[in-house]
Every structure is written in structure tokens, then in C-alpha cells.
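quick one, 347 residues, struct below
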Amino acid sequence: MLWFNWKCHNDLPWQLRERFNNQLNKVDLNTLNTTHTNIPKIKAGKLGAQFWSAFVPCDTQYKDAVRQTLEQIDVIHRMCQKYPETFRFTTSSQEIRAAFSDKRTACLIGVEGGHSLDSSLGTLRAMYLLGVRYLTLTHSCNTPWADNWLVDTESGHSEHNGLSPFGKQVIKEMNRLGMLIDLSHMSVEVMNQVLNMSAAPVIFSHSSAYGICPHKRNVPDNILLKRDKGGIVMINFYNDYVTCSPTANVSNVADHFDYIKKLAGPSIIGFGGDYDGVNRVPTGLEDVSKMPVLVAELLARGWKDEEVKAALGENLLRVLKKTEEVRGNTHTFSHTQAPHHDIGYTT
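---
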């Protein structure tokens, strides 16, 4: 049976920057063997679509985050152009299905961290025009308009009690554009605020179940139970978020799928991954080629074919299509940038 297989988070573009300074003439993805992801592994894993992460570190905030993020967006486009027999750049649910029909891996872009905007709605809109279809509101640092997950730990502190007024404008503008809102890396207060105000369903691009592994990067039960919002949680394969320890295996990952399915149903589950963005992945899921192993584990646990098919990609396609339908239903904001501390900012 041919199933559509879509992963929501892969950091291969970051590896291209770190290892090759984004010089694609110095690397061949057909033979590269030092990463979780290459073309033979993509084919073995039957990867039908992939959100590639345009990530730059938090230490670029207030410096050159926008430029560096644009360079990561650029390298994703060039990667697709270099390997047209494997990749096809896409920006919509319709284009994704067409690429799958043509036996190409549909490629999309997600920007991992709101610091990449430099508090500018104009930058957000420009990135959308460049093909960005989701934004993770923060990475592991607060932005001038949103609190990250560390504020829920002893090592962090809240600056905005969730979202600032400008942060709420970012949410509305993402709805208007038709850009997916990614709540991975967010504080619980931000999760609740976004779920209460967003007209479109949200995603967690690479997070797991807090009820299995009580790490603050995972999604708590009370958020999972807001399934009426129609969003999706894409399971992270980083060992520390799977078992809260340095080691994990395929069965441990499947436990997160089972837990969320039992608590909130199969319609909110997806495959997140985080390949090439972490240094520890479960035994049996060493790289992107191993996805069939996890599918086999879920089927062995009694998952129905249609439930696995939904988790592999149909759930995320539904969320993207709904976000596309919401597009245009909210007004355009006249202001394009927030002051760094959001003082006195109004619409």
C-alpha cells in the first residue's frame, strides 16, 4: 500500500550551513553519509513531503537574524533546484499532492524562531512570499513579543505573560497570510493564548507528550485535550523528549503515539522527527530511512491502516488546507514593526 509520508521538522539545511557554509557545490546529497538525511535515506524512508527548517541560533537576535534566515531559505530553494529528480518546492496542499503523484518529495519551509522576524510584520510577509509556510513563534529564547518554553522552568523568566500585544498581532497576521503557527518551544501560557485566539488550527512541529516524558518542551494533557481546535502534535524523536533520558528506542516513540491517540484521538498526531537537529535519536530510528520501522510498530500495536495514514501526513494536510481556507479573513495591519519592548504599541 502506498501511503503519503510527511515529516514536519528536519534540520538538514542547518547541517549544510555548519558543514559546507551553504556551498552546495561542495556536497552531494546522494553520497553524504554523515547526516541523518540524504537522498538514498529519503527514498528508503518513502518520504513524500518534508518541512525543512530555516533555523538560526538565538544569539543572532538583535543582530543579523533576518539575513541569516534568508540565507537558510535560499539554501532550501537551491537544494530543490539542484536535485529536481528528487525534490519539488511546494507552498500549498494542492502542490504537495501533485508532487506526491509525480513521485517527488514535496519541500516546504518552516522558520524556527520568531527572532528571525526582528519584530517586523513586513519581514513575516516577505518570508511568506519566499515560500515560508510555518513559523515557530520562538526558539529557546524569548523574543520581544513572546515567551519561550524555558519560562516554565527554573532557569527562565516570563517577559510578556505569554504574548505581548504585538505578539497577538503576529498571530492574526499569520492567520491572514495562511501561515501555520508552530507552538513547539513555547510556554504553556503562549499555547493557551494562541489556541484561544487563532482562527486556524495550530501545529507542534516537533514535540512529544508530557504525560509520557515530563519535559517542558513536550505538550501537557490540558493542551492535548483542546482537540476541538483541530491542530496537530508532531512527535519529536529526540531521546531526551521521548524518555527524558539519553537513550530511547522505537517502542518508546510509539508510546507517545499511543498516549496521544488514547487521550485525544488519532486526528491530532503526526511525525515530527527533528532529524539533523539533535545528537541523540532512538535505536531503530537512526535516520530518516527508518520510518517504515515505526509504521510497522504502530500497526503491530493495533493501529488501523487509516489511522497510520492520517498520522503519516493526512492530518497535517488537513491542517494546512484549513489554514489556507482561513487566509484572507482577517485585516492587514498598518504597522510593520514593534519597538523592542513593545511599549505603547497599538494598531
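The longest strand covers residues 105-112.
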